[in-house]
Amino acid sequence: MATQKPERFDQVDWNNISRSRWFDLSINSIGMLATAVPLLLVALSDWQILDERTPTLEPIGLEWDIGTVDYLFIFTLLLFAFYIVLPLFQNPRRTKYYWREFKRNRPAVVSLGWLAIVFVGGIVGPFFISAPEQSILTGYQPPVFLSIDQSYVSTCVGEIATGQCHGTWQHPLGTTAGGKDIFAGIVHGMTISMQIGFITTTIVASIGITFGTVSAYAGGWADELMMRFVDIVLSFPTLLMFLLILYIYGAGLGMFILVFAAFAWGGTARYVRSKSLSISEEEFIKANRISGASTYRVVRRHVVPNAASSIITQLTLLIPGFLLAEAQLAFLGLGDSTIPSWGQLISAGRSDLSFAPWIVLVPGIVLFLTILAFNFLGDALLDALNPEAEAESA
C-alpha cells in the first residue's frame, strides 16, 4: 500500500492552514471554556437575579458570597491551571529539563516551597479559618512563648505569672490592639496577596503582550505613536491617580488592582516589543514568511511562544512591586481598611512597637519572605527557561 508523500516545507499552503485553524481550539482552550462559561453564568446570576444581601451560593446551601474580585481571581486561577500547569504535564520531557535547571538554584527551591504554602493557604485557609474579628477585651494578647505586662491587657487569655500575661495557642501569633487574631489575619492576607498578584499580573500581561506585539509588527508611524503612548503611561503618576479615584469612589481592593494594572503594563509592552523585534529577525521566522504564513500565525505560533519564557520571568518580578505598593498605601492609611491584608496588619501595630512589636513584625516578616521568594523565583526561572540570557550576562 502506497503512502502519501509528505509536503516539503516550501510547498505548504500556510494561508490555507491559517484559515482552517483560525478557530481551532486546543484541549487547553476547550477545558478553559468548559469551566469559564459556568463561572460566567454564576456571575450573571449573581449580578442580575440574586438580591445584594443574598450570598451567591446560597441556592446550593453554601453561605459564600462571591465578589467581583473573587470572580476575577477564580478566572485567573483557571488561566494559570490550563495554560501554565497543564502544559507542564502535557510535556513531561521539557518539564523535567526545566526542573533540573531550576533546582540548581537552592534558594529558589526554598522560595517555591514558601510560595506554595502562601498559595495553598490563600486558597484553602479561608474555608477553615474565619476572618479576624474585633474583640477589644482580648487586645494585645502575646504570641505563644512570649509575654506582655499585664497592665496592657484587659483580659489575659493565657496564664498570668509575675505580672506578665503569657501567650496561648488560642492566639498562636497574638492579637492586635482591637483583638483581631494575627494568625487568621496572616491566612486571609495570603488570599489578598494572591488576588493582587494573579489578577494584576494577568491584566498587565494581556495588555502588555498585545500592545507590544502589535507595535513591533505594525512598524512605521503606528509603532512610533504606540511607543510614545507607552512613554506617557510609564511617566504618569500612578499614586496621584489612585488618590484621585480614592477621593471620588473610595478605597477598595478592586480599585487598587485596576489602577495599578492600568499603569503598570507599559514596561511589559516595551519589553515584549523589543523581544518580538529580536525574534522576528531569526531565520525560522523569515522562512515562515517566505513560505506564505500569515502575520497572525507567525506571531501566535512562533513569536509569542519563543518570547514566553522571558515574559513569564519579567511578570514574576512585577508581583513584589504590587504587594509592596498595597502595604505602603495601607501603612499610610490609604488602603481599604475592610480587607485583612498584611499591609493593614502592619498599619494596625505601627503605634504599638514599643510594647507589642509582634503586631508589625509577624506580617512584616511574612511580607518580606514573600517578596524575597518572588525575586529568587524570577531569577531561577530566567536561568531555567531562558539559558541564553544567562550566557549573555556571564
TrEMBL record:
It is a multi-pass membrane protein. Pfam families: BPD_transp_1, OppC_N. InterPro entries: BP-dependent_transpt_permease (IPR050366), MetI-like (IPR000515), MetI-like_sf (IPR035906), OppC_N (IPR025966). The keyword Nucleotide-binding does not apply. One of its GO terms (biological process) is transmembrane transport. It is found in: Cell membrane. Residues 190-378 form the ABC transmembrane type-1 domain. The chain crosses the membrane at residues 25-49, 69-89, 109-129, 196-217, 315-335, 355-377. PROSITE patterns: ABC_TM1. Keywords: Cell membrane, Membrane, Transmembrane, Transmembrane helix, Transport. One of its GO terms (cellular component) is plasma membrane. Belongs to the binding-protein-dependent transport system permease family. This is Binding-protein-dependent transport systems inner membrane component. It comes from Halorubrum lacusprofundi (strain ATCC 49239 / DSM 5036 / JCM 8891 / ACAM 34).
